[in-house]
Specification:
elongated, two-stranded antiparallel sheet, single chain, mainly alpha, 153 residues, disordered N terminus, 4 strands, 63% helix
């Protein structure tokens, strides 16, 4: 299906249907996400950062809760937690009500890693957004709200 229309000799772009728009958005969002992930500390992987971000949002969590939040198997989470613990980014404490469980929480170094990574990502994106025309930034502001609605469904 052609997404162009010709009026008075001028070719304009029609709004794509949902399947075509889905494909365009998927590519754009994935490329942007991949590029933002590069703006991180060299110390940890994107998956490890994601675990730190969960702890930042949710607070202390059990390894099982982290595995569920990250959609990974518990043994994988155990390895990730171990590496983060070795780096001094998370700490292990006893669960207050269940002696068989432990809670993982961020250390000061873990919080600093999150702050620095977010600062770097925001700076990269702000620089790129500053290169756009004002009307393009306004469009992206509207799109951000829409994308949040789409992703929360």
């Amino acid at each position: 299906m052609d997404d162009r229309a010709t009026t008075s000799g001028t070719t304009t772009r029609r709004a794509p249907g949902a399947p075509a728009l889905a494909a365009e958005l998927r590519v754009a969002v994935m490329r942007t996400s991949r590029r933002l992930r590069l703006e991180s500390t060299d110390q940890i992987s994107p998956g490890q950062f994601s675990v730190l971000a969960v702890l930042d949002r949710q607070g202390p969590s059990t390894p099982r809760e982290l595995a569920v939040a990250e959609h990974v198997q518990p043994p994988s989470m155990t390895r990730t937690i171990g590496l983060l613990e070795e780096l001094g980014l998370v700490a292990r404490t006893d669960h207050p009500t269940d002696g068989r469980q432990v809670l993982m929480s961020l250390t000061d170094a873990g919080r600093a890693t999150i702050r620095e990574t977010r600062r770097r990502r925001d700076a990269w994106l702000a620089k790129r957004l500053a290169e756009l025309e004002p009307h393009e930034r306004a469009t992206l502001q509207e799109a951000a709200a829409i994308l949040l609605r789409v992703s929360d469904r």
